[in-house]
Amino acid sequence: MALQGGRDLTRGNVFWNLLTFTLPFLAANFLQVLYGAVDLLIIGHFGGGSVGVSAVASGCEVLHLLMSLIMGLTAGATVLIGQYYGAGDSANVRRSVGMTLSFSLLLSILLTLITLLLAPYAVHWIHTPSEAVEPTRQYVRICAAGLIFVVGYNALASIFRGFGNSVAPLIFVGIACAINVAGDLLFVAVMKMGVAGAALATILSQGLSMAAALWYLNAGDFGFRFRRRNFIIHWDLAWRYLKIGTPIAIQGSMVGLSFVFIFAIVNTMGVAASAGYGICGRINGFAMLPAFSFSMAMAAITAQNIGAGKPYRALQTLRHGIACTMTFGVIALVGLQIWPRHVIEWFIDPAGEGAEAAIIAGCQYLRSVSWEYVLVPIVFCTNGFFNGCGRTFFSMCNNLGFTFFARVPASYFFGTMPGATLFELGFAAPLASFASNIVALFYLWSGRWRDRRRHHSTVKQ
Predict the structure, then answer these.
(1) What pLDDT is stored for residue 322 in this prediction?
(2) Residue spans of the chain under pLDDT 70
(3) Can you give the pLDDT at residue 456?
(4) Which of 96, 316, 365, 450 has CA atoms 20 to 30 A from the CA of 39?
(5) Residue 8 lies in a domain
């Protein structure tokens, strides 16, 4: 019997499938980035100027490390469910959904305990400016209390994407974004709770969004219902889930760790550089949205086509994805070379305390790092393609290799030069991406991604 509630991505026009499937990803990721940017924007205008911005930016760097780990592990569900769905194996699809939800609950408890324990130390490890230490610690602790919602939402979003449903995650992140904006305005702008208010708004919005997603999974036509017998960790599937998701998680968390290292270098330059860099991080998030969104869509589409035995369609999808994201990258590069100050001023009141120095530092960084926008289309799209093929180990090695042997050392070298500014430090990112692209394209050309055997375990009826 055909599965319901999803979308078959192995038929029809390749470009149209990619475009229509990616657009909800793009919208959802836009809202996700906006969701994080709102905290910084409202803090920058109503919650303490450059010190408040530095605190939220520093706290987000610590939490981004956890988010990378969570998103990497849960991405295993997208590939696992996508391949079973493409093969028409409804029994293993149902088992995979229950296993993913059960495993995610255990993961969220573990991560919450670890984060609450290490939060005070992490704030010092990244050399947070002294005036921002206490609000940063407060922000991290409050957000850590809501990690169960973060893990739950990402697990559910990955499940929906494995079914070929990219609209549901868009709806739920839209719910979270709307609640977060309202919460920030209430807690920060009206109640003057500062950084703590921004953190409270964040966990409230995540909790309500996850609840809505759980209801939709149970009520929707996905062949899964909330019954005790369905919440079992099937270790054969858990092993495949971890085998696929762990390399992505290691890759994401190690890349996140590299950004923590870089942010620690930036923090030694003072609160103005810290605030400016933090604002640019949000701008980078928007600029890289198309590449990131196409990469996520690429993994799901590739997984279904590999599962259906149609690797050529997956390769066509990759070519279209690179072409589309490269177009966006050129537009972002040109725009931020011409108008960097105008964009930065969206996030901080120019008349606020320390704002001018933060704006100048941010402009310096954007003029150099923006060259990465024409390089990440290949980085992200090939990552999504190889992950969908199940070649997550190669993606991990390629990205981690150039992150830790190129980006981090280059950032340290440029950032510690006598008289260094964020302008010099910004060149580390495009240099690392350029080198990573060469290796990824060579691997693609070699055809080794085709050689992976597909194993679909069966269920006794």
Answers:
(1) 93
(2) 1-7, 47-49, 223, 451-461
(3) 42
(4) 365
(5) no
Per the domain annotation, does 459 fall within a domain?
no
* pLDDT of res. 421: 87
Q: What angle do CA 126, 64, 50 make, to 5 degrees?
A: 55
pLDDT for 460 equals 37
Cα–Cα distance measured from residue 284 to residue 56, given in angstroms and rounded to the nearest whole number: 16
Q: What residues contact residue 278 under an 8 Å CB cut-off, 6+ apart?
A: 40, 53, 54, 56, 57, 58, 60
pLDDT of residue 100: 84
Number of domains composing the chain: 1
- HEC readout, the chain: CCCCCCCCCCCCCHHHHHHHHHHHHHHHHHHHHHHHHHHHHHHHHHCCHHHHHHHHHHHHHHHHHHHHHHHHHHHHHHHHHHHHHHHCCHHHHHHHHHHHHHHHHHHHHHHHHHHHHHHHHHHHHCCCCHHHHHHHHHHHHHHHCCHHHHHHHHHHHHHHHHCCCCHHHHHHHHHHHHHHHHHHHHHHHHCCCHHHHHHHHHHHHHHHHHHHHHHHHHHCCCCCCCCHHHCCCCHHHHHHHHHHHHHHHHHHHHHHHHHHHHHHHHHCCCHHHHHHHHHHHHHHHHHCHHHHHHHHHHHHHHHHHHHCCCHHHHHHHHHHHHHHHHHHHHHHHHHHHHCHHHHHCCCCCCCCCCHHHHHHHHHHHHHHHHHHHHCHHHHHHHHHHHHHCCCHHHHHHHHHHHHHHHHHHHHHHHHCCCCCCHHHHCCHHHHHHHHHHHHHHHHHHHCHHHHCCCCCCCCCC
- Contact between 82 and 388 (Cβ < 8 Å): yes
Residue 341 within any structural domain of the chain: yes
Map tokens 């760097």 to a residue. Answer: 61
Q: 211-234: per-residue pLDDT in tens?
A: 999 888 888 777 677 777 777 777
Domain span at 165: 14-448
> Does 461 fall in a domain?
no
Burial grade of 206 (CB within 10 A; 0-12, 13-18, 19 or more)? buried
Look at residues 198, 357, 205 and name the one whose alpha carbon lies nearest to residue 277.
Answer: 357
Q: What is the spatial distance between Cα 390 and Cα 82, in angstroms, rounded to a whole number? A: 11
